Amino acid sequence: MSVLWNLWHGCIKISEGCKNCYVFRRDSLYGIDSKQVYKTKNFDLPLKRKRDKSYKIAPGEHVWTCFTSDFFIENADEWRDEAWQIINQRKDLTFSMATKRVERVQNCLPDNWGTGYDNVTILCSVENQKQAELRLPVFRQLPFKQKSIICEPLIGPVDLSDLLKGGWIDKVIVGGESGDSSRVCHYDWVMEIRKACIENNVSFIFKQTGTLFMKDGKNYKIPRRHQSWQARKAGINVDSNYYILHELFCLLK
After folding, report:
1. Mutual orientation of helices 224-233 and 242-252 as an angle, nearest 10°?
2. What is the distance, to the nearest Å, from the Cα of residue 225 to the centroid of all Cα atoms in its chain?
3. Considering the entire predicted model, what is its pTM?
4. Among candidate residues 113, 105, 245, 229, the one with its CA nearest the CA of residue 174
5. Strand partners, 96
């Protein structure tokens, strides 16, 4: 099972992939200023209990962490130490968090971090070749025991052949961009990333197509409810843990 834990909400756009961010798109429907970062009422969700005193998030579940913000955003510096304490207290859960701010991570880790918490995976977000070359060399040096790359929204070709060398990455996840203003995702880009993963013995997951998808010279406009299914239908995943990513897609819809 997987759950979504958004302990703070709001973000600041910092690169090309942020242009059509789904958080900003959703917030605009309700007149919410997405640039205002605030602590949510679910900040302590992993510690909340039911009437019978059992945890609301049962032991063994996977927790997708901070997907309506960035866990390492400057605006949340005052809350992060407490968040790490919660994560460390719930060693019976696993946590995953994605970030575009890899240059801040080292200075945002808790004092007892060591080489990393066993129950935490970090995903570095890269949307094109420029950001892959900027972020991944920094990401590689970070002391996390589990590391993955998420190329979503994939808005340009990305050559990971050299950047994946050395067996330091667990998996690469790829997805297109959703929404009315989305940019096209090319199937050729997806397959090039897959090829680099296979060459470097790295797991690969095609998570979703995005709204605008080009394959074999043809353009497709795919409804959001079908984007994950179409990616799964391609049958190109090289990972047995695909379905946990499918749960994340469903949680974010």
Report:
1. 170
2. 19
3. 0.91
4. 245
5. 64, 121
Closest CA to 64 of 87, 47, 38: 87
Alpha carbon of residue 70 to chain centroid = 10
Is the separation of the CB atoms in 71 and 42 below 8 Å? no
Q: Are 172 and 199 in contact (CB under 8 A)?
A: no
Domain ranges of the chain: 2-252
Nearest to 137 by CA among 115, 163, 162: 163
Cα 62 from chain centroid? 13
DSSP count for the chain of H helices, then E strands: 7, 12
Residues 6+ apart with CB under 8 A from 103: 138
Residue 114 tokens read as 């060591």
Length of the chain, please?
Answer: 253
pLDDT tens digits in sequence order for the chain, 253 residues long: 789 999 999 999 999 999 999 999 999 999 999 999 999 999 999 999 999 999 999 999 999 999 999 999 999 999 999 999 999 999 999 999 999 999 999 999 999 999 999 999 999 999 999 999 999 999 999 999 999 999 999 999 999 999 999 999 999 999 999 999 999 999 999 999 999 999 999 999 999 999 999 999 999 999 999 999 999 999 999 974 544 555 555 555 5
| Residue 233 C-alpha from the chain's centroid | 22
